[in-house]
Design a protein that fits this description.
3 helices; elongated
Length: 72
Amino acid sequence: MALRMMRLAAGGTRAQGEAQRMVVEKIAAIAEAQAAAISAALDGHQDHVIVSKTLGAFDKRVRANKRRLSRS
């Protein structure tokens, strides 16, 4: 989160692109997490497995953003 906030605070074209990317990523992450939760529930998994699969969708994106923002 701090890496993204530094990018946004810098302003300019990169900050604008990051803000747009952030909105798109959030919508996609929510859709992916919902799909993971529904799939796990329909497969009959226990609650803790459903939660784990749901959070895994967000975790994957957080790690990818950390790698991307740390490089630049």
